Amino acid sequence: MTPINKVIIENKTDINPIWIMRQAGRYLPEFRKIREKNTDFIKLCLNHELSTEITLQPLKRFQLDAAIIFSDILMIPHGLNQEVNFKKNFGPLLGELNLDLISSLEEKDFIKKVNPVYKAIELVSKNQLTDNKTTIGFVGAPWTLLVYMVNKQSPKLKLLDNFFEDEHKLKRILKIIEKFVKIHIKNQIDNGANVIQIFDSWAGLLPAKDLDSYVYNPTIPLVEFVKSLNIPVVCFPRGIKDYKNYCDIVKPDVICIDYEVDPIQIERNIKIPVQGGMDPKILLTDKENLKKEAKKYLDIFKDHPYIFNLGHGVLPETNPDMMDYLVKTVKDY
Ligand code: 1CP
Fold it and tell me: Cα(203)–Cα(198) distance, rounded to whole angstroms?
């Protein structure tokens, strides 16, 4: 069993495995080199040889305990034939969402479009660089995918004033998303993913009264589905105020926390394994401070099953030497 799976399944508290969200990405010069020549981001994700290479890049440099497949949560709208583009200095830009088309789309046509993701997972999980390491597959949670698919751009820039106007339509889209997210999860597992992470990056946009409809109810069947396949599931409802309530209702195997919550309260109130927490901006400071902050999390969680990670993705301006120092600090603890 890999160290991450031991923490999750055996509740081990004496080891602190580490992986980092966005560990393959723009802070690595070897990634930027490939990215410069491949300007179409979706195409790059769907080039299984390059996405395998990119996935393995951080494992060649650092003693990480997991590979997370180089892909994107927006593979779901792409697979549903909604156009997805990444514009420089803007982020994702999606095309029209045709409800009739996505309702009638067949499973095999979806799989055909995103199949290179599954091929890459197979190659990564069979590569010797992942021996005794976890291969993490992932999906966006229905709410976060709904936000991108209906808003057609990051809500960081703007959320449409009339976003919630047609609630019936939103519920229909959520059901379709749920169906294809399950298909995407199943195929990732069948090809070698042995942990699934569900990213609900925009959970924090909702007032508490809407969490039932948009976050809890659509996520519960996905968590149950992953569990039914005997694979651990990590949930990351970023920005949510009440992580304890989320865990009680959604029941993930692991909860990934953001950097705005108090880790001491989390340790006290939540009994399941915890992942993440440290602010990615700490990696932009100095080694002394980095060590102090990493140790803060390790100390708080020393008697709790804990997987070290950040409270969101590693920032593009991070120096890879700082990443190396962080991994060594966690391993030497
Ligand atoms: O070079 C580039 O400009 C591309 C940057 C990039 C990368 C490296 C994007 C565009 N996606 C990715 C890969 C990615 N995305 C991974 C790979 C595995 C790894 O962690 O190393 C993962 C897990 C994701 C997941 C993802 N995509 C999320 C959830 C996590 C999070 O960051 O909150 C979200 C919200 C997306 C959408 C997306 N894709 C890319 C960007 C810049 C964004 C965010 C857009 C926004 O701000 O709304």
Answer: 12
DSSP symbols for 261-294: S-HHHHHHH--S-EEE-B-GGGGGS-HHHHHHHH
Task: Give the ligand 1 atom nearest the CA of 199.
Answer: 29
Both tokens assigned to 12: 């081990």
DSSP 8-class letter at 92? E
- Sign for the CA dihedral angle at 28, 34, 37, 42 comes to negative
For residue 62 the two structure tokens come to 């650092």
Find the 194 Cα to ligand 1 centroid distance in Å.
21
Q: In Å, how far from its chain's centre is CA 291?
A: 25
> Which residue has its alpha carbon closest to ligand 1 atom 12?
72
Ligand 1: list residues with CB < 6 Å: 21-26, 35, 41, 68, 70-74, 86, 91-92, 138, 154, 156, 199, 201, 313
Q: Does the global pTM surpass 0.85?
A: yes
Q: What is the CA 205 to chain-centroid distance, rounded?
A: 17
Q: Is the dihedral of CA 275, 59, 30, 35 positive or negative?
A: negative
Q: Is the pLDDT of residue 141 over 90?
A: yes
Measure CA 208 to chain center.
22
CATH 3.40.50.1110 assigned to domain 3-332? The reply is no
Name the residue at shortest CA distance from atom 39 of ligand 1: 72
β-pairing, 91-94 with 84-87? antiparallel
Q: What is the pLDDT of residues 208-234, one digit of tens each?
A: 999 999 999 999 999 999 999 999 999
